[in-house]
């Protein structure tokens, strides 16, 4: 099975498409047990979403599959990494992607995702530094104002 590049996950399913996956999953669940394939399909659709709650639900389903169905771990690793990346959970994204790269060092999708994760980590670091710098500058202004009042 060929896995899509991370850019594919940026294109969410339509409401109708996601509804079809949800209906299949719920139908199977109501009859006693949802198949791994139905759970995976729904999880995949949810991870593609732009809605954080849906992405988190997709990650939850993928985690269940990862734990309960060892033959599906490879697929789950990629989508778990992708889902965590989209949610900004870079440490988790890195961890799952590293497991996939360990198993498949030549996996182009995982390598591509690794680059995106590292860029996200760097961007987050720059934002953190900017916030810290801004807070320090604000603290300096407040302190200077307090010192002037005491004089």
From TrEMBL:
* A GO CC term assigned to this protein in UniProt: peroxisomal membrane
Which CDD domains has this protein been placed in? Fis1
In terms of InterPro entries, this protein maps to: Fis1, Fis1_cytosol, Fis1_TPR_C, Fis1_TPR_N, TPR-like_helical_dom_sf
For this protein, the parts annotated as crossing the membrane are: 126-147
Q: GO terms for biological process?
A: autophagy of mitochondrion; mitochondrial fission; peroxisome fission
Point out the signal peptide segment.
Answer: none
Repeat listed as a keyword: yes
Q: How does it sit in the membrane?
A: Single-pass membrane protein
The UniProt record lists the keyword Mitochondrion: yes
From what superkingdom does this record's organism come?
Eukaryota
Q: What UniProt keywords apply to this chain's record, in alphabetical order?
A: Membrane, Mitochondrion, Mitochondrion outer membrane, Repeat, TPR repeat, Transmembrane, Transmembrane helix
Q: Where is the protein situated, by its record's location annotation?
A: Mitochondrion outer membrane
Which PANTHER family does the UniProt entry name for this protein?
Answer: MITOCHONDRIAL FISSION 1 PROTEIN, TETRATRICOPEPTIDE REPEAT PROTEIN 11 TPR REPEAT PROTEIN 11
Which family, according to the similarity comment?
A: Belongs to the FIS1 family.
Function according to Swiss-Prot or TrEMBL: Has a role in mitochondrial fission. Has a role in outer membrane fission but not matrix separation.
Entry note about domains: The C-terminus is required for mitochondrial localization, while the N-terminus is necessary for mitochondrial fission.
State the protein's name.
Answer: Mitochondrial fission 1 protein
- This chain's source organism reads Jaminaea rosea
């Amino acid at each position: 099975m060929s896995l899509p590049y991370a850019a594919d996950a940026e294109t969410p399913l339509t409401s109708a498409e996601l509804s079809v996956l949800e209906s299949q999953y719920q139908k199977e669940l109501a009859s006693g047990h949802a198949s791994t394939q139905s759970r995976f399909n729904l999880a995949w659709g949810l991870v593609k979403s732009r809605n954080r709650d849906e992405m988190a639900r997709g990650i939850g389903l993928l985690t269940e599959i990862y734990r309960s169905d060892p033959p599906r771990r490879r697929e789950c690793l990629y989508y778990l990494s992708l889902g965590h990346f989209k949610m900004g959970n870079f440490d988790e994204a890195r961890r799952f992607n590293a497991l996939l790269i360990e198993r498949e060092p030549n996996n182009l999708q995982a390598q591509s995702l690794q680059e995106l994760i590292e860029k996200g980590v760097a961007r987050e670091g720059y934002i953190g530094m900017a916030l810290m710098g801004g807070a320090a500058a604000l603290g300096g202004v407040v302190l200077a104002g307090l010192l002037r009042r005491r004089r």
